[in-house]
Design goal:
33% helix; 2 domains; globular; 365 residues; 4-stranded antiparallel sheet; 8-stranded mixed sheet; binds (3R)-3-hydroxy-3-methyl-5-(phosphonooxy)pentanoic acid; alpha+beta; Alpha-Beta Plaits; Ribosomal Protein S5, domain 2
């Protein structure tokens, strides 16, 4: 069993004056949802997600040794322009991870970041953004440790990157490595941990190969309720304990479904998880609704289409109004046709993004 102290490094023997790294990290879409957490970003229940391929953040981290080593120092550029309003989140992240990366105050950092998906599309960029930053910081740690005699293992590199990303934004720990990623302790999933995401270790049926996710942008505005407030509302929530138990049950069912390729079962679990997530929002105090009328129009249209055609297409939702339409690659053409004919009208400015399962973060050399 891992504990957080396993990620506190030995003193570094190597010193580096300046340099830079660059990584891309993808967004991910949860099938079993993380909603509710304990101290230190420990999830109240395990979750599992598909890693996306096209929606990603690309971050270059430049670093240079500085004189004053008492404070964190960094500039933040978003799409080439200084972005002051992102800085408090990064400052908090650096504070949280300092004991695991003791070199942070020795450097001035320039964090230069951009997303491949449209700004304020309502797609959460915190998962891909925090993962991309964590990957860069791990590259620096790896370089600083390279003279220690024992080379940092790939497992440790990715586990610690995921561990750090989790401290930035919980779901970010599922954006580091692997196509299907589990985060949170689950008895029947070997290696699963509350501390970091792990690649789903069991068999995955061909049906899920290149699984498609078309993201329908229903509402691109700022969310009225942030996910951190939402997680908090699961404390003293009347249905919390039952919900957390249900997430474990659904994850166990998915283990079987991933192996058998049973898409009907898959659809039932995934849609139920999406609606349960939003039901938790609607039954907290204060209660809130993040779905919009068009979210419901799309859900109903998907149900009608699935009933009539028997094509195994389903939806999931994250903490917002957008709809992720999930389907196997084999029915791609028919589903895209359906989306264009019947769903695009419900999207803001007709916008949607075609994505599919991807493999995780990539270093850009
Ligand atoms: O990582 P956070 O704190 O933004 O929470 C994400 C929560 C959901 O997207 C709603 C569910 C999930 O598991 O990704």
């Amino acid at each position: 069993m891992f504990s957080a102290t396993d990620f506190i490094p030995q003193p570094y023997s190597h010193s580096i004056e300046k340099g830079s790294f660059q990584w891309s990290a993808p967004s991910n879409i949860a099938l079993v949802k993380y909603w509710g957490k304990k101290e230190d970003q420990i999830p109240a229940n395990p979750s599992v997600s598909f890693t996306l391929n096209n929606c990603k953040t690309i971050t270059k981290l430049a670093f240079a040794k500085k004189q004053n080593q008492d404070v964190f120092s960094f500039d933040l550029l978003f799409e080439g322009k200084s972005k002051e309003d992102f800085k408090p989140k990064i400052q908090k992240f650096l504070e949280r991870i300092e004991s695991y990366l003791p070199f942070l105050k020795e450097y001035h950092f320039t964090i230069d970041t951009q997303n491949t998906f449209p700004h304020s599309s309502g797609i959460a960029s915190s998962a891909s953004g925090m993962a991309a930053l964590a990957m860069n910081l791990m590259s620096l740690e790896k370089a600083l440790s390279r003279n220690l005699g024992t080379e940092m293992t790939e497992d440790y590199f990715y586990q610690k990157a995921s561990f750090l990303a989790r401290l930035g934004s919980g779901s970010a720990c599922r954006s580091v490595k692997g196509k299907v990623v589990v985060w949170g302790n689950q008895e029947n999933i070997k290696g699963s941990s509350d501390l970091f995401g792990v690649e789903f270790p069991n068999a995955i049926h061909e049906n899920f190969k290149n699984y498609q996710d078309t993201i329908l942008l229903v509402d691109k505005g700022e969310k009225q309720v942030s996910s951190s407030v939402g997680h908090d509302l699961m404390h003293n929530h009347p249905f919390a304990e039952r919900r957390f138990a249900q997430a474990h049950e659904n994850l166990d069912k998915l283990i079987t479904v991933f192996e058998s390729g049973n898409l009907n079962e898959f659809i039932t679990i995934v849609e139920s998880e999406a609606l349960t997530l939003h039901a938790m929002m609607m039954t907290s105090i204060p209660y809130f609704i993040l779905m919009k009328p068009n979210t419901l129009q799309i859900i109903n249209a998907i149900w009608k289409f699935r009933n009539e055609t028997k094509i195994p297409v389903c939806f999931t939702l994250d903490a917002g109004a957008n709809v992720h339409v999930l389907y196997p690659e084999s029915v791609k053409e028919k589903v895209i046709q359906f989306i264009k004919a019947e769903l695009v009208g419900y999207c803001q400015n007709g916008q949607y993004i075609c994505d599919e399962i991807g493999r995780g973060s990539v270093e850009i050399l």
